[in-house]
Amino acid sequence: KSRLPSLPQHVVLYPLVSKSLRNIAAGKDPLEGQRHCCSIAQMHEHYSLGYPDLDELQKNPQPLIFDIEVLKVEPPGSYQQDPWAMTDEEKLQAVPQIHKEGNELYRQGKVPEAAAKYYDAIACLKNLQMKEQPGSPDWIELDQKITPLLLNYCQCKLQCEEYYEVLDHCSSILNKYEDNVKAYFKRGKAHAAVWNVAEAQADFAKVLALDPSLRPVVSKELRSLEARLREKDAEDKIRFKGIFSQ
């Protein structure tokens, strides 16, 4: 550990910095809630930073002592920046590697870890996309890079049984790309998992209309859904019979 003292005049902006660091630790955007203006304006704009200790420090700057602890030492070349810390060019260059790492983790059966990688790659591209005019050629190009990553992310979420997230993401894809077979198929599986029978059947029918070669796969999913429905009906009959016989 090392201890670094700091004088009050040098930490007048520390509350804003600390808020950003806390956002990062919580997995949020470090600039969440901030406007595009100078730091002094930010301080006057926000009555509260959301943390009582930071609000007090902002009102009454105090001398600070920082404890810095080394958690680990990484070999040269192994460090990978978090997406929020990258420049636009670094984000664009990092996406293929992050995508590759996600695929490798998925092949190894490390599904939550793979989902985290896909999420990081999506975050890089989404950050760049926010700077483009919606519908512009650059915006569309970035969106077309985001879509396969989002579908991979949805596949992970299917396996993690987080079905409603899959429904939301696949629907957002289909709102833009009505012929995306993979999005219909994954959404159909998610609908089936949460007993949205009619919606699942409609999505699987759309898959067949767009790609008839997938009939064996779709038929398997529909047979599985029908079998689960029969089991559920049998369980419900037993349960209700017990209720009414009391």
TrEMBL record:
Record's subunit section: Interacts with RET in the pituitary gland; this interaction prevents the formation of the AIP-survivin complex.
Cited function: May play a positive role in AHR-mediated (aromatic hydrocarbon receptor) signaling, possibly by influencing its receptivity for ligand and/or its nuclear targeting.
Keyword Iron: no
Keywords: Cytoplasm, Phosphoprotein, Repeat, TPR repeat
Protein's UniProt name: AH receptor-interacting protein
Cytoplasm found in the keyword field: yes
Places the protein is found: Cytoplasm
Molecular function, one GO term: peptidyl-prolyl cis-trans isomerase activity
GO cellular component: cytoplasm
Main localization of the protein described in the UniProt heading: cytoplasm
Stretches assigned to the AIP/AIPL N-terminal FKBP-type PPIase domain: 8-70
Gene this protein is translated from: Aip
Repeat region (TPR), residues: 181-214
